[in-house]
Amino acid sequence: MKTTLTEENYLKALFHLVDSENKVTINELSKFLSVKMPSVNNMMKKFADKNWVIYETYKPLIVTEKGWREAALVVRKHRLTEMFLVKKMNFGWENVHEIAEQLEHVHSTVFFDKMDEILDHPKFDPHGEPIPDKDGNIISQDLQKLSSCNVGETVVFTSVTLSDDSFLNYLTERNLLLNKKIKILKIESFDKSVTVEVDGKQEILSRKATDKILVKK
Questions:
Q1: Alpha carbon separation from 76 to 113, 124, 144 (Å, rounded)
Q2: Distance (Å, rounded) from C-alpha 212 to C-alpha 159?
Q3: Cα–Cα distance between 214 and 109 in angstroms, integer?
């Protein structure tokens, strides 16, 4: 039986929230999806029946291997669509999320396999996040938040975490794009805002922004 739109939204949430031990709480899912706890509990009981999660009352959920694969395949459709919109239809990286949200629920495997082929099998989406393969496998990246870097370091902007269109517009306006080198010039002790240099130009970034920017050294 095909997964429903609601099930796919829950699967995608599991993908984004699961920790290193494949665990996530009902409360975390509730907040992430803006859905009441009883509804989340009912859905997770259904997921347990499908062997997507291990569900025990008052304990964190454990996402099974089968559940992870199902979740990764939803994310694969979303990220492939975003890449197609940017590379083949010339959308800006800040304009693709909402469209991908709609297309990720198309169930045709052939459709997304063809999209993957046309794009020459990309490993990352326009925001630097890895695209799961057809088996749900995903490339591991050793990245860190810009907010965790030190003064004097020069890092490469590699990815952004779950970011809305307004944040991507914010980055575009400041020419903070993927693969740009960022030099950390100053960190304010009061609010942890960071002064950086990109292409010879200085910018001051808030802690909220530097928490969303992922970099590698």
A1: 10, 10, 23
A2: 9
A3: 31
Half-sphere exposure of 95 (CA within 13 A, CB side): 9
Model confidence pLDDT, tens digit, residues 153-200: 999 999 998 778 889 999 999 989 999 999 999 999 999 999 999 999
| 8 Å CB contact between 161 and 212 | yes
3-state helix, strand, coil in the chain (%, to 5): 40, 20, 40
Cβ contact 163:178 at 8 Å:
no
Residues 6+ apart with CB under 8 A from 111: none
Give the C-alpha separation, 107 to 99, whole Å.
16
